[in-house]
């Protein structure tokens, strides 16, 4: 990455108090959380179905044991720590420069880094609820379970508050995301290929002229970016001063 582009980003950040960040899996992979969509042999290792099938609503209903085998193995990751990107975003919010983080990740690392206004489009592994009595459980409770997690109150099965394939996104969260993006001075998009719904659709609500795109590989939106930086989001953010 060129230092010239970092300087441009620095200048943008210095001169605003209305940044909105939209992040995808790439933000979490730098904390060691695998992107289950990446084709790294995960498909053909121990599972008879592709991740998109296992993480679907109908699969969760029809084969909960198999769903949870995958979920515990690949999704419920509690050892990861926030990286430089999470930390800088929390600092930007604290300094009044950043209004919201909108994320496709479900790992809660933004909150762990100190971010307050985090819109989790796909839910969170840290919220789980009994499908029978609605009692809520944290991720630690889930981690202790084997097989299908059951409610300690009523014995009902517990479902993670994670948006599965075939399930709709939370309307209120989406409306808030649209509100923040449509009012943003700077929209920074990081760590997403922008191929996954609803990323591309949300970005259409941005009205400004400072669209910053940070990703390791090319995305279909590259030509729309006012500032395009290819590289590690953690490395880039760690160079920004507040
Ligand atoms: Zn219950």
By CATH, the architecture of the domain at 1-33 and 81-122 and 169-241 is named 3-Layer(aba) Sandwich
Which radius of gyration do the C-alpha atoms yield?
19 Å
CATH superfamily of the domain at 1-33 and 81-122 and 169-241: TPP-binding domain
Parts with pLDDT < 50 across at least 5 consecutive residues: none
Give the beta-strand count: 9
- What is the average per-residue confidence, as pLDDT, rounded to a whole number? 93
- How can the largest sheet be summarized? 6 strands, parallel
- Separate helix tally: 11
Please give the alpha-carbon distance between the first and last residues. Answer: 20 Å
Provide the CATH topology of the domain at 1-33 and 81-122 and 169-241.
Answer: Rossmann fold
Cofactors and ligands present? zinc ion
Instruction: Quote the beta fraction.
Output: 15-25%
Q: What is the general shape?
A: elongated
Alpha-beta content class: alpha/beta
**Largest sheet strand order:** 3-2-1-7-8-9
What can you tell me about this protein's structure?
This protein has 242 residues and is of the alpha/beta class. The protein has a domain at 1-33 and 81-122 and 169-241: Rossmann fold (3-Layer(aba) Sandwich), CATH 3.40.50.1220. The strands form two sheets. The chain has a six-stranded parallel sheet with strand order 3-2-1-7-8-9, sandwiched between helices. A three-stranded antiparallel sheet has the order 5-4-6. The protein contains eleven helices and nine strands. The protein is elongated. 35% of the residues lie in helices and 18% in strands. The longest helix is centred in the C-terminal third of the chain and has 13 residues, at 171-183. Zinc ion binds at residues 130, 132-133, 135, 151, 153-154, 156.
């Amino acid at each position: 990455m060129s230092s010239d582009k970092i300087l441009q980003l620095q200048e943008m950040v210095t001169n605003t108090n209305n940044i909105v960040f939209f992040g995808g899996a790439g933000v979490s992979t730098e904390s060691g959380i695998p992107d289950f969509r990446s084709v790294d042999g995960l498909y053909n290792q121990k599972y008879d179905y592709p991740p998109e099938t296992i993480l679907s609503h109908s699969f969760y209903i029809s084969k909960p044991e198999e769903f949870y085998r995958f979920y515990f193995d690949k999704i419920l990751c509690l050892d990861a720590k926030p990286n430089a990107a999470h930390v800088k975003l929390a600092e930007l919010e604290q300094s009044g420069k950043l209004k919201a983080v909108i994320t496709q990740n479900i790992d809660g690392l933004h909150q762990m880094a100190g971010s307050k206004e985090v819109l989790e489009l796909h839910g969170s592994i840290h919220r789980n609820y009994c499908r029978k009595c609605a009692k809520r459980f944290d991720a630690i409770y889930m981690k202790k379970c084997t097989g299908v997690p059951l409610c300690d109150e009523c014995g009902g099965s517990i479902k993670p508050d994670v948006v599965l394939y075939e399930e709709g996104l939370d309307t209120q969260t989406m409306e808030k995301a649209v509100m923040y993006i449509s009012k943003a001075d700077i929209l920074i998009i990081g760590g997403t290929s922008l191929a996954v719904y609803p990323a591309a659709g949300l970005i259409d609500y941005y009205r400004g002229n400072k669209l910053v795109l940070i990703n390791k590989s090319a995305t279909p939106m590259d030509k729309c970016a006012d500032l395009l930086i290819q590289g590690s989001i953690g490395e880039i953010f760690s160079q920004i001063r507040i």
